[in-house]
Amino acid sequence: MKRLLAAVLCTAVLLGLAGGVHAADCDHEYVALSLEADCQNKARTVYTCSLCGDTYTVYADEYTAPDGMYLLLSSTRTDSTINVNCYYFNNAGLSGAQMPVYFDPSAVAVDSVVNGEVWTAENYVNGIEWTPGSDHVTMYAESEGNDTNTNNGLCFTVIFSILDGTKDPGIYLKNGSRYYVDWDNETNRVIDRAPQIIDIIGKSDTGDHKYTSVTVPPTCTETGETTETCSVCGDTHTQTLESLGHNFTLGACTRCGIADPDAHTVTVDGNSAVYSVGDTVQLSGAFYTDGAKAYRFVCWQGDTDVLTDEGDGNAVFTMPERDITLTSVYLLIGDVNSDGRINGTDLNFMKRIFTGTLDPIASADVNLDGRVNGTDINYLSRMLLGTFTPDK
After folding, report:
1. Domain ranges in the chain?
2. pTM score > 0.85 for this model?
């Protein structure tokens, strides 16, 4: 005898059901193990019978009852559509059913409705009522006999276009207090499992990969790579790291130590050092003393074209693609006659400069005030006595 199953409330969009196979002769005592989502599975609880080892898995967004007849909606969602698949489960003995699916027409619109296989290949959906612009779709199903409808099957798929992504699509089975079922003569019972109220559009998903990273660093001339491998599923991907290239400075690579084949030398006052092209070269030509003698820097001589100011003792330049030779020029303060010594002759020459009978020279300006006068004569006299040494 055929009886029609009317719809009951189900705010449902569900991705699937996983149930265990129960041993008929065991009073199961299940132990639950909750597992977080990983890259292969959604969040789930695995139930294992401590007596017989029977096991089944229930996902976070699934109906948990392992037996009885019930209706189920599952969905997939993109940015523009929602596909709702309407299923019957555990439907042995059911010969006919009616399933109205309602929705919010301001949030979604029916784009199309597709028939699917119901129960066995010989039994099919024999009716769909769908009025464009309405707020529901109704499916009718009927099998030819109670002894053939033993398979679970997809009843139909509704493809919704999303009109307003900010709204709840409101997809549900018709709200009603009555539903009709078939009598199962074999088990002498009514198949009366009611649908559950579940809403899971976009709810459960697999988790992220758990990558560990191994890096082979690149060298100056060889590429390297970073390989990431998921410890859960083994997914792996490799990123090539470009070779670094040499970083030459002071005539050698700072990373691998190889000599710079394009390096050049800077020779200052006979002392040579190796530099790479583009290096910054710092010169040092400063006032200094040697015992009682004081020396004042005058200028650089040689390859002075690399200098902005050849009179700057602390000049800086960028190393060109050639060798550079420079010589520092100093004067001995108080050595007025330039013989490399400081004595009475220098004091006599300074007095002549002071009286205007001899032209001034730089070494006579002891205190570096730009003039040669009595103060300088006094300083030089003290230098001869060993009581004064210039400091600039």
Report:
1. 62-190, 211-241, 248-330, 344-385
2. no
CA nearest to 125, candidates 101, 141, 145, 149: 141
Structure tokens at 107: 């949030």
Nearest to 93 by CA among 180, 194, 181: 181
For 106-142, write each residue's pLDDT tens digit: 988 888 777 654 433 343 444 555 667 778 777 665 5
Residue 308's pLDDT is what?
94
CA 370/CA 392 separation, integer angstroms: 13
Angle at 74 (CA atoms; ends 63, 112), nearest 5 degrees: 155
Q: What is the pLDDT of residues 288-340, one digit of tens each?
A: 998 888 899 999 999 999 999 999 999 999 999 999 999 999 999 988 988 88
62-190 belongs to CATH 2.30.30.30: no
What are the angstrom distances between the C-alpha of 271 and each of 104, 206, 303, 326?
A: 89, 70, 15, 10
pLDDT confidence of residue 262:
94
What local confidence, expressed as pLDDT, does residue 87 receive?
60
State the Cα–Cα distance between residues 359 and 348, nearest whole angstrom. Answer: 13
